[in-house]
Give the backbone structure.
Amino acid sequence: MVWWKAELRARQHAVRAAERPISITQRLAAATAVGAGIGLLSRADFQIFSTLFADRSPALYLALGAAALIAPLALYLVFSDE
């Protein structure tokens, strides 16, 4: 029984050690994507967007706003370790 618990503990430690580089890579990729998005957003011409959405209904704006508020929460729940 003691040997089995030691074996189980060693496997769990190996899994945690293998997951560390993966989580670092995921966080680095997310930071890169955020940085690229901010860079692209700073180069955007917002007058194009105002003419693009000029004839749309307020429901579209409400849906886009709700998605913008819910997306970070959904990403947090997906990528949290709990």
About this structure: The helical segments are 2-42, 46-52, 58-79. The two ends are 29 Å apart (CA to CA). The mean pLDDT is 83. The chain has two domains: 1-44, 45-82.
